[in-house]
Amino acid sequence: MAEELPETPVEASEEEPVKQRKNGLYPGVSDELAENMKSGWADTELRDLEPIPQAAETAARRAALSARFPGERLVVPAGNLKTRSNDTEYPFRASVEYAYLTGNQTEDGVLVMEPVADGHQATIYLLPRSNRENGEFWLNGQGELWVGRRHSLAEAEQLYGIPASDVRELAGKLREATGPVRVVRGYDAGIEAALTDKVTAERDEELRVFLSEARLVKDEFEIGELQKAVDSTARGFEDVVKVLDKAEATSERYIEGTFFLRARVEGNDVGYGSICAAGPHACTLHWVRNDGPVRSGDLLLLDAGVETHTYYTADVTRTLPINGRFSEIQRKIYDAVYEAQEAGIAAVKPGAKYRDFHDAAQRVLAEKLVEWGLVEGPVERVLELGLQRRWTLHGTGHMLGMDVHDCAAARTETYVDGVLEPGMCLTVEPGLYFQADDLTVPEEYRGIGVRIEDDILVTEDGNRNLSAALPRQADEIEEWMASLKG
């Protein structure tokens, strides 16, 4: 990684000396070099750009936001870069609220909705192209010769269909603003500081809740992106099965790296930390260390999802026999989870309560636990007291979209206590987990964890399993793995 020069935009002059990094190799910038760097560059302005594919959808989303908060200034930041270590940053991911309303994914961006007589005037505030007169483009650590070209404001207007302005002027404008203001908090401390005497936590939370609930029902663009994410994820699972022998020779990290390659080639990233849990690690719900051994005869619980370039993520889990064949006890537990998932998926339909699919899956699992003698019945008692939770642990699903746990700020009455509608997308993911140190179950159960998860779209007449391309039934899993291993 190349060593940077100064940390801030500078003028190369005696009056304003170049600010050097400590231990930098160059003592400064000569007047001759500074002057040389100003000229001799081609015009790279991009003209006649096409709008981004979701421009119509983002405009409709802003219109809905405008209708909900008439007469109020609305401020939605993308967020800023976060330091990983010293002078290196984490890869940037714009806030979901900002990306949902604009389609833009640039750090430091801010959407401002100014109230006007007939609604709002939207402006997207961005960093313009790096300044070549003051040397910013090559002397600043975030200059274009260091991190790459960014769009000009004119280009941004063409792409996003929103007037664009210089974000460096925004804080001053907001400090002088009058009238009611709301801001999405937690992403840009500088913007929040400029509004500190104009906003309240309660009003800002109402804005956040509205934007979360707006995403409960997906539009056609979003459904298409979710299907893309799922299709890439299915290919990533196939990639993993093909290299299980290499994972056995190394560790779970070979599985993680294999899936990550598919995510980066076909999408933006993984939608969340991949869970590549072999053997007893499958009993740890969010096992993301992925540093354990991969052994023939054990199960691999792979919970992973590709995130598309527009931030929509899949969330799929398959539990696979590493050697390609389930043992008798593994199949017994797997089949129970499969039956529970089938019951849960069947309960996903318009007009059903959101909780119905969870209740249906939990009932099946409770019945199995009673049948196996692991907990005393009757089943109604087990469910009433939640006794099955020792081995089922988690809820049976969640909303899915631009966040893997999408719409998390929605009101309880519209989410968990709500009713399913066409266009909602959720996971159905029951599981059974018998911890390696659980002395209440027979030894043969211990260390076995099984979860099966699919991404389910609510349709007008029922549901569609977006991840149906990946086999789920035990025999089909074995046949699929055998065909991939050749």
TrEMBL record:
One BP annotation, GO: proteolysis
PROSITE patterns recorded: PROLINE_PEPTIDASE (PS00491)
Gene Ontology cellular-component terms listed: cytosol
Region feature Disordered, mapped onto this chain: 1-26
EC number: 3.4.11.9
Stored PANTHER family: XAA-PRO AMINOPEPTIDASE 3
Protein known as: Xaa-Pro aminopeptidase
Lineage: Bacteria, Bacillati, Actinomycetota, Actinomycetes, Kitasatosporales
Gene, per the UniProt record: pepPI
